[in-house]
Amino acid sequence: MLLKSLWKMLLRVGSRVVIEGVREGIGDHGEMVVVVLVRLRKRRSRRGFCGRCGRLSPGQDAGAGRRRWRSLDQATTLTYIEADAPRVNCKVHGPTVAEVPWARHDVGFTRDFEDQVAWLAVHSSKKAITELMRIAWRTVGAIVERISDDARARRDPLEGLRRIGIDEISYRKGHRYLTVVVDHDTGRLVWAAPGRNKATVKKFFNQLGRSRTLKIRLVSADAASWIGDVVRSRALNAKLTMDAFHVVGWATDALDVVRRQVWNDARRAGQTAVARELKGARYALWRNPEDLTARQAAKLADIARTNGPLYRAYLLKEQLRRVFALRGQAGIELLDRWLAWAQRSRIEAFVKLGRSIRRHRTAIDQKLITGTGNALVESTII
Ligand SMILES: [Zn+2]
After folding, report:
1. Residue 11 Cα, ligand 1 centroid: separation in angstroms?
2. Which of 65, 196, 254, 382 is the most exposed place for a label (fewest CB within 10 A)?
C-alpha cells in the first residue's frame, strides 16, 4: 500500500489514478526497466473525457488495448506507465482515445518527461540532453514544438516572470530554428517561436508588454548579439547573464581546434603513430577528468609527456570549467588569472577565446555572482 502511494507521488499521476502494480525487467540494451501499471478510477458509466477537447463523452470501445508512456527515469531505471487506452465517442471528434491525466493526447511520453526535455533543450547541449534523457534529437524537436503550442493554449504563461532564459535551438538537422524562453523559477518553457533573429526576440517582448518586461530581473542567454541587444534595449531592469555551458562549450571547441592542428602537423611530418594516438585521444580530452576511464587517463598522461601545447590547451579548458564550479568572487578571480594565462599561452585558439570572453565579461561575471541554473544539469555539462 505504502509502495503504491509512493509510486503515485513519484509519477505525479493525479488523484483519479489507481496504481495496480509494478513490473520490473531488463530492456533491449540490458538496462533496468520498471513498468507501473495504472488505471483511471472507474466512473459509474463508461464515460470519459475526449483526449482532444476534454469534453465529457460516452464510452465507445477498448480502442487499441493497453498503452505505455515513457515517464521520467527513477534514478537510472527506465520508467513506463502502462494503462488501458479506451475510446470515447466525442460529439465533435467522434471516436477518440480518452484523456489521461499524465500525458498529452496521442503522445508516448508523460507531461513531466516532456517538460523536462523542453527545459533541458534551452539549458544544455544536444549531446547532454539526448544522452541524459535517452531519446533521439528529432524527438526533442517534436516535444518542444508540442509544448510551445500547449503553452500558448494555456492562459497567459507570461504572467509573473522574473528570471528567464532565452536561447535558440535548432532541429531537423539544423534546418529549423526556434527561439525559446524558459522561466528559471518554475523550470517551464513559456514561449517559443520559429526563427532566430532580433525580430523574434522583439516579438516575445511585445507580447510580454512594457510593464511586465520591466519587472524582469534577470535574463540568461548565450553570446548571440541578436538576443543580447534586444534584451538590453527592452528589459531595462534586468541583468544579462550567460549560461556557463555556452562558455565551457567554446573552450571545448578551441581545444578541438588545437587537437586537429597538432594531428595535421604530425601527419604531414610522417609521424603516423603519433597521429593515430592523437586521433584516439579526442574523448579523453573532452571528458571531465573525474569521468575518465583508466585507459583515457593513461592516454592523457601520454599527451602530457609528449605534446606540450595540446596538454596546455587541455589544462586551459579544465581551468575554465573550474571557474564556473567555483563561482562567486573566487570564480571571478580565477577567471582573471585564466585570461592572463590564455593570453600568454601563444595557443591561437585560446588567445581568441580569451578575447571573446573579455567581450562578454559583464554577462559572465553576472553569471558567476547570481549562479542561476540547475545543479543537476550543470554538473552534467560543466
Ligand atoms: Zn472532442
Report:
1. 26
2. 65
Ligand 1 center to residue 52 CA distance, Å?
Answer: 5
- 49, 50, 52, 54: CA torsion to nearest 10: -40
Residues with CB under 5 A from ligand 1 (ion): 50, 52-53, 55, 90, 92-93
How many Å lie between the centroid of ligand 1 and the Cα of residue 357? 53
The model's pLDDT over 259-305, given as tens digits with 9 standing for 90+, comes to 999 888 888 888 887 777 777 777 778 777 777 888 888 888 888 88
Going by C-beta distance under 8 Å and a sequence separation of 6 or more, which residues neighbour residue 320?
247, 248, 251, 335, 338
DSSP assignment string, 173-215: TTTEEEEEEEETTT--EEEEEE--SHHHHHHHHHHH-HHHHHT
Structural domains of the chain sorted by starting position, each given as residue range(s) with its CATH number in brackets = 2-102 (no CATH), 150-242 (3.30.420.10), 245-381 (no CATH)
CA of 138 relative to ligand 1 center, distance in Å: 28
Interval between CA 276 and ligand 1 midpoint (Å): 61
Kindly report the pTM of this predicted structure.
0.56
